[in-house]
Amino acid sequence: MNWGAIDKYAKSLIKEAGHRIRVSFYTNISVDTKASANDLVTNIDREIEQFFIERITKDFPEHRIVGEEGFGDTIDSLDGVVWFLDPIDGTMNFVHQKRNFAISLGIYVDGVGMFGYIYDVMRDDFYHATRGEGAYFNDERLPRLENTPLSEAVIGINAIWVTPNRYVEHEPLIELVRSCRGTRSYGSAAIELAYVSSGRMDAYMSMRLSPWDVAGGMVIASEVGAVSSTMTGEPLSLLGQETFIVAKPGLQQHILKHHIRLK
Amino acid sequence: MNWGAIDKYAKSLIKEAGHRIRVSFYTNISVDTKASANDLVTNIDREIEQFFIERITKDFPEHRIVGEEGFGDTIDSLDGVVWFLDPIDGTMNFVHQKRNFAISLGIYVDGVGMFGYIYDVMRDDFYHATRGEGAYFNDERLPRLENTPLSEAVIGINAIWVTPNRYVEHEPLIELVRSCRGTRSYGSAAIELAYVSSGRMDAYMSMRLSPWDVAGGMVIASEVGAVSSTMTGEPLSLLGQETFIVAKPGLQQHILKHHIRLK
């Protein structure tokens, strides 16, 4: 397998998809809902996913593709080469803001993340990494992260997790919000993973994410020394919805130990 | 008074200050804390405020200037012309992220907001308005806002206000977070006011803001039909720290009535 060529191929596909998304703002965008009234999807999410899948299946027929909109494969193992794609991560931002969304792509081989890409389309910010070769923000190498105490940490957490919910006790999370330097919420797991990887936040967490939300970002985060896991501290299976935290290593341990009590 | 000239003057000052801030990233930035460990200030906040104040006092000696860093005037009335300046709104983002902060400026005459400016420095996004003449995002006129039901609203609220705090009962705010389409938190009141004004969010609120955080944004928001008030529904005094909400009109009424119970 010529991995360098696959890396170039993936980058060029993502840039072309980004261009298509920017052009889409001059067309009619139709918004539907999926699992719930706040789970939005548009014709553009679908068209961009189909664009990726048509190209990848033609050029790499033996690879499998898992995409948010369901045009790809359903998998029950990570054997072989699997592409995890979110054509528009942060669809609510895409619809309401026309910005603050990203294309997220991760390429895994037998369960090991080889390539990760996050493209913040409207900022034209491209985060990417190759396993063992470091992570980049545009053309700039991202430095390894140094640890930060909780009192100086900026944490990506949505307010919803600080309210009673079915996944986690919210009281210890109230303590987390009150103990850190500040919280942010951007509405795109991919962008928040990119922010942790580039040192703009110190941790990001959510109680329910899908493989395509995090697969690309996890490769990037890993190359700068951030730790990704479920809320029980296990590696993600990438086979279904899971809890998720990415953080600088000491901080991840501290948060899991003191602020996470799963229901 | 030649108001058109003052508008041009203010715009050019803000652009020059933005340039100085961008250049500052190539110098040493020293970070101090103010009222609390999470209330950050840097030498750049101070230098930029002094840059504005030196220019404005020289060119408009009869105007008063109220700035976050305290180099300007202390006021106990809004008589005459008052400039409300936050040289870097979102200092924590400036320090941690090198982005997502803004210069915020409002020019008031006898308590009436005449000009409002918000400059998202790193995106190079400039929001501005003149009373009675509409609001602009860069060179594009911002449309008047249409109302949005709470169930479809994206609301800017920091997770801290959904935890027990000294200003407001947090339980009704938990209900707000669970009833809206989604919440975001960007860590800059000016940027969040700009987002409401440009339709990217439907409301933004905080329990403790200073005049310089909101004075510029309120002029912009008003020109697109958004309502700004304290949490009791009163106009802001702009003479000290206050509670604050800006929203599309029906939404502001709904939130105040059903989700705000001040302590």
TrEMBL record, chains A, B:
Residues involved in Mg(2+) binding: 68, 86, 88-89, 213
Gene Ontology molecular functions: inositol monophosphate 1-phosphatase activity; metal ion binding
EC assignment: 3.1.3.25
InterPro entries listed in its UniProt record: Inositol_monoP_metal-BS, Inositol_monophosphatase-like, Inositol_monophosphatase_CS
UniProt cross-references to Pfam families, sorted A to Z: Inositol_P (PF00459)
UniProt-listed CDD domains: IMPase_like
Cofactor: Mg(2+)
Keywords: Hydrolase, Magnesium, Metal-binding
Keyword Chloroplast: no
Catalytic activities: a myo-inositol phosphate + H2O = myo-inositol + phosphate
Single Gene Ontology BP annotation: phosphatidylinositol phosphate biosynthetic process
The UniProt record lists the keyword Transcription regulation: no
Cited PANTHER family: INOSITOL MONOPHOSPHATASE, INOSITOL-1-MONOPHOSPHATASE-RELATED
Protein name per Swiss-Prot or TrEMBL: inositol-phosphate phosphatase
Originating organism: Savagea serpentis
